[in-house]
Amino acid sequence: MTKLGWTLALVFALTTAALGYFFILKGNAFLGKDGRTAIVLTEEEKAHVLGEMRMLLEGVQSITGDIAQNNMDGVAEAASGLGMAVANADSPALLAKLPIEVKTLGLATHAAFDDLAAAAKTADDPNAVLQQLSDIMLNCVACHQGYRIAIKNVDE
Ligand code: HEC
Prior knowledge:
The protein is mainly alpha-helical. It has a single domain (28-151), classed as Up-down Bundle (Four Helix Bundle (Hemerythrin (Met), subunit A)). It has seven helices and three strands; from the N terminus they run H-E-E-H-H-H-H-H-H-E. Helix 2 runs antiparallel to helix 3 (72-80), helix 3 (72-80) runs antiparallel to helix 6 and helix 6 (100-122) runs antiparallel to helix 7. The longest helix is centred in the middle third of the chain and has 26 residues, at 43-68. It is elongated. The mean pLDDT is 91. Heme C binds next to helix 2, helix 6, helix 7 and strand 3.
């Protein structure tokens, strides 16, 4: 390769690495004063995420009630409503703003609800299902301890 060719290749590699860092690893975020990482979103994106969160809370409430009633069909239905199908509906623009740990934890949480739905269909011990829900909720706790949302141009 010519010197120019090497230079262009280097510039290309560095640009790719920088884009990868910002859009895949770092997301759009800064360390907030409360010690949590603040993810910078638009008003609409924040509303979308919080709507999804309230859906998670509602689903978890419904699952605990169904477990108490030993209604495993109810558990399976509520849990699959919180599965990967929800994550797949998120826009690529929003996903790009999430730091990699948040994407990983979020996707793992949705996948775990699909697993819970599958387990409920064959479960004969409600306590085992409750334990599985409790384990999933460690993800809720972990993410809320580490992250919050900031609105672009308002909280930055
Ligand atoms: C991958 C990260 C992540 C996971 C996992 C997660 N959340 Fe959240 N959740 C957030 C963030 C970020 C906020 C916004 C917090 C803030 O800005 O103070 C939030 C906010 C919420 C809210 C407030 C909604 C509102 O309208 O204000 C509820 C309720 C909630 N989450 C429930 C849950 C439940 C239940 C789970 C687990 C089943 C869960 N979340 C899992 C990141 C997550």
